[in-house]
Structures are given as C-alpha cells and as structure tokens.
C-alpha cells in the first residue's frame, strides 16, 4: 500500500513538473506599438505654382493738366511660379520667397474708332520675407517685401498697328497666408497680398500721364519641398 501511494505521488509530482516547464516556455509578448508619425519639418527649399485673381486699380493723372484725373479697376487672372527657402526654429518658421506671375488685368480708356485704348498690367512679381507659426503640418504666416510689375499703354492707330509705351513699376507688398503639408514633400497654400506698385510716367503722343497701380491679389498654389 505504501509503495502504491509513493508511486502515485511520484507520478503526480512528475506531471506537475512537466506542466510547469511548459508554462514557463509560454512567454508573453506585448502587441507592437505603432510609431507616432514624425512632426512635419518646414526647413528646406521649395518650388511651386499658383493661380488666382488680381483686383487692380489704375489711377491716371496728367502733370500737364491736359485732362481730369480719373481711375478705373479690373479683376484679371493671375498665374505664375514661386521659389523659396524656409528655416524652422521650434514652432517658428522664417523664410525668403520670390514669385513671378502673368496677369490679364486691364482697363479701357475709350474707343477711338481704331480700337480700344488700354492700360494693362502684364506681369507681377515680388521678393518677400515670411514669418509664421507651425502647428505641425499647418503653417500660418505673414509676409512683406518688394513688389514689381510691367504695365503697358496701347493706342491703336488702325491696320492692326498701335502705339505702345511699356514701363516697369516697383513698390511694396504685404500679405497673409496659410500653408498645409499633405505629405512630406507636397504642400498647398492660400494667400492674400496687397500690392502697391507706385506710379510711372507714360507718353501719350504729345502729352504724358502718370499711372499709379495698386492690386489686391488672392491666390492658391502648390509647393514641392525638397
């Protein structure tokens, strides 16, 4: 009887040992934790395109008092390219940018039979400094700097011919905008700028006139960040 009890006890201890060894081999492995996406870094060079509207005021005055001063405005299409570089310091982003765009803004000074006498703003550009605050992949910013553009006076004389005087204007610009990073390389922006191109003197046959140009520019665009 004692031998049977001893054998039964030994078998029980052996079984428990085997079960314990197998349990010891079953280690717990935690589920892998997904890595948090890296915060967007705005530092770097970028190239892009933009399009929008240039709401332009043309103001005319005659130094020789040959006619009354007058003004007119027109909303034209605007489309062009931009390039710049950003530096990010914590949440503060500073940068430099140059942009250049074609515009279709123009006003008519009247029909003289051979056609419309027109003043056109043909090209518009700027070189500006930007400063903004980054909320990860959203950047809100202000900008300001030098603006420049080419405008042309055109007087038709018949037969498809016209007298023209083209001048470059220089002035200043200031604006605000927001830019959003869709990926690590592609960003989209929306922006408003006020542009003051100052005045230039244009020759009108035997007279001349000063033309002062200002514009409100609203545009959207895409940038590729390298």
From TrEMBL:
Pfam families: OMP_b-brl. This is Outer membrane protein. It comes from the Bacteria. It comes from Kaistia terrae. Its main location: membrane. Keywords: Cell outer membrane, Membrane, Signal. InterPro entries: Beta-barrel_OMP, OMP-like, OMP/PagP_B-barrel. It is found in: Cell outer membrane. Belongs to the Omp25/RopB family. Residues 13-226 form the Outer membrane protein beta-barrel domain. The keyword Signal applies. Residues 1-23 form the signal peptide.
């Amino acid at each position: 009887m004692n031998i049977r009890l001893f054998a039964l006890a030994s078998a029980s201890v052996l079984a428990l040992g085997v079960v314990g060894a197998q349990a010891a081999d079953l280690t717990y492995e935690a589920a892998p934790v997904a890595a948090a996406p890296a915060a967007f870094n705005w530092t770097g060079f970028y190239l892009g395109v933009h399009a929008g509207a240039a709401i332009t005021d043309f103001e005319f005055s005659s130094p020789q008092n040959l006619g009354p001063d007058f003004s007119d405005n027109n909303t034209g299409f605007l489309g062009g390219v931009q390039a710049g570089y950003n530096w990010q310091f914590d949440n503060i982003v500073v940068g430099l940018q140059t942009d250049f765009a074609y515009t279709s803004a123009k006003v008519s000074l009247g029909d003289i039979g051979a056609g419309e006498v027109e003043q056109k703003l043909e090209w518009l550009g700027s070189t500006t400094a930007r400063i903004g605050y980054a909320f990860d992949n959203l950047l809100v910013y202000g900008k300001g700097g030098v603006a420049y553009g080419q405008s042309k006076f055109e007087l038709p004389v018949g037969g498809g011919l016209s007298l023209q005087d083209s001048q470059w204007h220089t002035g200043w610009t200031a604006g605000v905008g927001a830019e959003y990073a869709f990926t690590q390389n592609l960003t989209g922006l929306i922006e408003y700028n006020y542009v003051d191109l100052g005045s230039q003197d244009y020759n009108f046959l035997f007279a001349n006139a000063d033309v002062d140009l200002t514009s409100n520019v609203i545009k959207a665009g895409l940038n590729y960040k390298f």
